[in-house]
Specification:
With 114 residues, the chain is mainly beta. It contains 1 helix and 7 strands, in the order H-E-E-E-E-E-E-E. The strands form 2 sheets. The chain has a 5-stranded antiparallel β-sheet, with no helix packed on it. Strands 6-7 form a two-stranded antiparallel ribbon. The mean pLDDT is 90.
Length: 114
């Protein structure tokens, strides 16, 4: 009985406007940032290195900023995400790409999916 109520509540907050993407894809996440009483949209572009499923799904995006690796975890159904653009699709053989953390330069490139 309680699972039914929880599922109904989660169905109200679920987002259906996001594109399909997988680990290895390069995406641009447009995030709403609130500064004082103003709100703006900032882009965070990088490679999806992990994706979790379920009602509280999330995905991790990694980018290189000024020579340092920066990772950010986004909840899929969060209201702070304005929209997501898929820049390119990568061909990978595993679901979690944590090995990219140890690579840099050309070694960290991924092949493009056809």
């Amino acid at each position: 009985m309680s699972n039914l109520i929880i599922e109904k509540l989660l169905a109200k907050t679920k987002r259906t406007d996001l594109p399909t993407f997988a680990p290895g894809d390069s995406i641009r996440v447009h995030v709403k940032i609130k500064e004082g009483d103003k709100e703006r949209v900032q882009a965070f572009e990088g490679v999806v290195i992990a994706r979790s499923r379920g009602p509280q799904a999330s995905f991790t995006v990694r980018k290189i900023s000024f020579g340092h690796g920066v990772e950010r975890i986004f909840p899929v159904h969060a209201k702070v995400i304005d929209h997501i653009d898929v820049v390119r699709t990568g061909r990978v053989r595993r679901a979690k790409l944590y090995y990219l953390r140890g690579l840099k330069g050309k070694a960290a490139r991924l092949r493009e999916r056809d």
